Amino acid sequence: MLGPTAHTDSFTRDKLPPFAEWPDINLDGFDYPEYLNAGVELTDKMVEQGFGDNTALIGNGRQRTYKELADWTNRIAHALAEDYGVKPGNRILIRSANNPAMVACWLAATKAGAVVVNTMPMLRAGELGQIVDKAEVEFALCDTRLMDELVACAKDSKFLKKVIGFDGTANHDAELDRIALTKSVKFEAVKTGRDDVALLGFTSGTTGSPKATMHFHRDLLIIADGYAKEVLNVTPDDVFVGSPPLAFTFGLGGLAIFPLRFGATATLLEKASPPNMIEIIETYKATVCFTAPTAYRVMLSAMEDGADLSSLRAAVSAGETLPAPVYEAWMAKTGKPMLDGIGATEMLHIFISNRFGDSHPACTGRPVTGYEAKIVDDKMNEVPVGTVGRLAVRGPTGCRYLDDVRQSVYVRDGWNLTGDAFFVDEDGYYHFAARNDDMIVSSGYNIAGPEVEAALLAHASVAECAVVGASDEERGMIVQAHIVLAEGFDPTPEMAKALQDHVKATIAPFKYPRSVVFIEALPKTATGKIQRFRLKQEPSA
Q1: Which among 114, 120, 218, 479 has the fewest CB atoms less than 10 Å away?
Q2: Contact, 499 vs 511, CB < 8 A?
């Protein structure tokens, strides 16, 4: 049963899936009081614990201590409740790039008891409208540099009544900032229940109408008290850097919740290109990095040219599966493992991961404390060790879609089905094969694209690649490789033949790419995920 609620607007609790469709939730070891406000836990409570003078956020040329962040968020929370009439349970959409002001707005809205919907700065009015309609969003906080699309969305919206501007730069000179400056630095946060929805995370899926995942106040702390504590061993001395947008739960966890939960420092980049991240790492001696394998390849090259990234103690790979050649090159260069892991918006964050002292190339690792996993067939029967099947997982977090019939597809028999094809080895380590819809079946053979990609990446001429299945009359599908060549190599038929021969010599010959397409750049999402569906839509070469 759900605990008490402080929401006077009961929309999110009313829209939770029926209990019969929930995954099994195991909260052993995650004990929180009935009343819990995650915004308070990550700011005021940290000040009470003695972290007030520690640097909490760095970004846009400014540094904020935990005391300054607590005061800042309390002022904004006052403004939201008193000047704009935000009620507990109201949904507040936030539109911004990664910067300290966005974090402050998220925390302030959470303190005010609102349900936050963080969104990507690149979304257009139509896409924002889908989110607003799904979550029935009445209020929006927007970086004044990004107002146009949201204002356009509001004009045609029957739900979005108020768009409030804040200054995402270091100047803090916009409507919300000016009102907040008149407020007290003390705020009596809404006494939300641990089972009150705090966050709606919209999935970054490529098809269909958007799905909103519902996460409680307790969930926001569970991912820190589980993965971040157990796997990353976060301490107040850590400095975080990374590329995932805060609009995605992966970025919100890795670049806000994890550092703030332990008195550490988060550095936030509006444009988190590899060169910008390298500069941050060198300037602030960052210790924990969250980014995609492609960015780590750039960092490896930068180290060859003299970049000093020796302060990094944890390199967490995300967005794409980590190819073994990148893992091995990083180990050889730094002597430190790269931590591959898998998470999902539905699960909030990472639930299977490698560990320090227990990591392997081309391996995702073992379940994080509190989670369990298994590999099943289409009928939910567990498959033998070493057999590729569907990944099923359950633990202290799990999928709860907001009023969505797809709940019964993601959750079956109490297990979350993530949409990934995996196998588990005899020692209990989980290995990624492909997304379920990315398995290539050619002449009856099951071929996992990432395995072919890893073979190609081991060749000196390949900078990046993505493998998809292409239709073929004779074989049903063939393996097609889209390749970005390294500098100094030419896209010739001879090069294609050399790469095909290389794959045949590296892995089982039937897996080689019968079609090789040379391209200048791979299509990617803002989190670094390769958009393979777009490659499948392009004509074969």
Answers
A1: 120
A2: no
Non-local (6+) Cβ contacts of 457 within 8 A are 323, 325, 326, 464, 465
Question: Does pTM top 0.90 for this prediction?
Answer: no
Are 430 and 371 contacting, i.e. CB atoms less than 8 angstroms apart?
no
Q: Give the integer Cα–Cα distance in Å for 446 and 430.
A: 18
What stretch of H or E contains 532?
A: helix 532-537
- For 381-414, write each residue's pLDDT tens digit: 999 999 999 999 999 999 999 999 999 999 999 9
* DSSP per residue, 213-262: EEEEHHHHHHHIIIIIHHTS---TT-EEEE-S-TTSHHHHIIIIIHHHHT
Is the Cβ–Cβ distance between 70 and 51 less than 8 Å? no
529 touches 319 (CB < 8 A) = yes
Give the list of residues 6+ apart from residue 335 with CB closer than 8 angstroms, or none: none
Strand-by-strand arrangement of the 197-202 sheet: 162-166, 139-143, 91-95, 115-119, 197-202, 212-216
Instruction: At 234, list the tokens.
Output: 């976060």
Residue 358's DSSP bridge partners are 355
Contacts with 35 (C-beta within 8 Å, 6 or more apart), sequence order: 4, 6, 191, 192, 193, 194
Q: 314-317 and 338-343 as β-strands: parallel, antiparallel, unpaired?
A: parallel
Q: Judging by DSSP bridges, how do beta strands 439-442 and 445-448 pair with one another?
A: antiparallel
Q: Count of residues for the chain?
A: 541
Left (φ > 0), alpha (ψ -120 to 50) or beta: where does 480 sit? beta
**CA 118/CA 247 separation, integer angstroms:** 5
496-529 pLDDT tens trace: 999 999 999 888 788 899 999 999 999 987 667 7
Burial of 406 by CB count in 10 Å (0-12 exposed, 13-18 middle, 19+ buried)?
Answer: middle
Query: Up-side HSE of residue 94: CA atoms within 13 Å toward CB?
Result: 33
CA–CA separation, 140 and 157 (whole Å) = 12
Q: What is the pLDDT of residues 112-171, one digit of tens each?
A: 999 999 998 988 898 899 999 999 999 999 999 999 999 999 998 999 999 999 999 999
Query: Roughly how many angstroms between the first and final C-alpha of the chain, as a whole number?
Result: 56
